[in-house]
Amino acid sequence: MLAIEDFLDGRDRDDMVLVYLSCHGLLDRQDQLYFAAADTRTDRLASTGVAARWVIELLDGCRAAQQVVILDCCNSGGFSRAGSKSAADADLLLPQRFIPTGRGRAVLTASRAHQRSWEGEPVAGVVGPSVFTAALVQGLRSGAADTARRGYISVDDAYEYAFARVRDRKAPQTPQKWMSSGEGELVLALNPAGAIGAEPATESAAQPPNPEHVPKPLGFRPVRLPNELTGHSGPVRGVAFSPDGRLLASASYDSTVRLWDMTSGLHVGTLNVLASSVAFSPDGQHLATAAIHDRLELWDVASGKSARPPLRTPHRDFRNIFPSALNRIQNAVAFSPDGRRVAFSRHNDVSLHDMASDEDIRIVSGRSRVAGVAFSPTGDILAIALDELVTLWTPDSRAQVSQMHTRYPGNFVSVAFSPGGETIAAGSDNHLAQLWNPADDTRLLILNGHTGAVSGIAFSPDGLLLATASSDATVRVWDAVTGNHRRTFKGHTGPVWGVAFSPDAELLASGGEDAAIRLWHHPDRPQDVLKLLGLLPAVAHGHAGRRGNAAVTL
């Protein structure tokens, strides 16, 4: 309450203020809305909750002529009747023709007065943004909410985009919008894509765009952890962060999987296994490795001991295989979001391992080696990179439900689901990465920029970025919504095989043929929030007069 009052006090009439609340929303017996704090009691909302009518009173007393309130909580639609304004204000929608200098108060809510606001699905222990906030931020971050291509995004634009995205997700909630004492248009953000009149992103956006229309790089740089982890004596084929981000696992052809402390960069453990892929369980207690001898190995992270019985028959020693032949061996592994199953490939088939029964059940076979597997965030779909196809299967029935073809000759060698499950990305040996909507198998984007096979692929935890690792010795970061190329990382001296984002999105790790693991860091996240809202570009270009911009997030 003090933070809100401090923020709204002392504002000038030329200011725009933005208040965003993401929390639990509770209704009392009179249907009055309260925002819950950590110590709020549901039977004493008046004395332990933050009343919506109190927030409205502060907004009424705030001198800023432009006010935007965004509420992402259950029952948030009840905000409209919490204050002194009449419910008729809810019908005062913005007019059809605007000038970009408006005034008034706009309120966007995630749901109606008696609806829940749904959270995003947790992925590997990481909770992503809610359905409503994810849609809203996606429209602002990518510029897709600027459907008229005017170069800026109004409150109306942001609402319409978020409304459509929430409906596309089939979430049982209806975002709402109200305007109180409104005139003109409230501009919420600049379009980061820049140019006014530019065409919306399509598959053609995969071609190198005009540099003037590309958002500035995010500012990744080598982190001082150090920026390179050394110790392996063979190619590093797979990397994976633990769910809490404290450990990084790396799989190498030197017959070891190493564990690294991400607070110091120190090597803290070694597992003796020749593997090409690694994955942590959602609770972080187990590590799965896809061994070259076509066997899934499970390890206890705390003790470093194998959690599966030893092999009953000796397996072939792959360390003396000719390097070019060894590089064609790429096993894949992935935990289901609930941790009950592990999908892993062995040569040209995929099996599901049941953690409770310790049984392996084969579900699919292909003509060549399966190189990628990925579970959807809900765990009900398994994506498999198999030859020139990405096939989707239901783990329970082990039935194929759909498949997606590459547009160009070549085989897929990596696959990943976005954290929200609305997009599948796959890399292939024809230098391309492609994105689809798994709901209807429509191709969304083709990413063209690498000159070698896209052997590793990973979404950022918020689903807005996509990282690709390639045999051309580079890692690229792309906007997962528009397909725009954001940055190329150079540092490896050979092919890059694996790539992974940390759960907090601060680190990007890559492993390569040069036996090195490189870490890239994003140091200016608060600044990016301002850029996202269009505030820094507005200040940089200069406004006439005393107009200011301010934002608070609680």
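the 2nd protein, sequnce then structure:
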Amino acid sequence: MGIMLGSLLALALLQAPAAPALPPLRRECFVLEPPASAKSRDPIGWAEFLRRESPGGMVLECEYVFVRPGRDEHWRVRHVEQLDDKGPRLVWREVGTAAGRTLTLERAREGEEWRCQAFERDESVRCAIDTSHGAVFPLYLLELARKGQIGAAQMYLFDPLETALVPRHISTVYEPASGKRERTLELERPDGTLAGRYVFAGTELTAFQLQAGGWRARRIEPEEYVRAMGGAVDLAGPRGLPATCSDSAK
């Protein structure tokens, strides 16, 4: 009887369907080029956008690396949006700046209120965010744009730099003549100034600019990004692991 039971268990294990594989990590890398008016044409930094699947949803990430003149110093900005069973939650970190600012935004455990915490030097600020007009996370907005799920709209977008929800007019310009299915998503402030311009080819982000006359981000291969980072980023290494969203600064 024991032998038969063991054989049946072994057979069941062999016939059990394999767990579905998670989709591969999506990685988009960019070089940040100075505006046309700048004297130097050297890059002022680099950026990397990631999306990974997570139980119950996804995690979106963006990291900027800025270099100072001479490239002797640099600072990073890390932006994570956790949209899964543990979220929704946004984490923003500035590493290498004098302040070393860290900000988190998440829904309160009870009710619909959103709580924001900002840590800077030895100070900690907590506040509630009013979402009665609706609210969208910045990286999630780009995710909607990739899939063509947003064209023109008026939205309140959370801006980590302002620690507030800000109104944005959103429009999409289609360029069928390009042959690349290109379209441009533009965000404008109430005064009409540019708050973001993102160019998509199909579902891929190929270029972007955060303000008129400012630096522009141009898509590059991940290998070029790794070389720019001095080989410090392993394409198959730690960046492929789930994001950590602790409240601790740096």
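Helices lie at 2-15, 138-146, 222-228. DSSP finds three helices and 14 strands in the chain.
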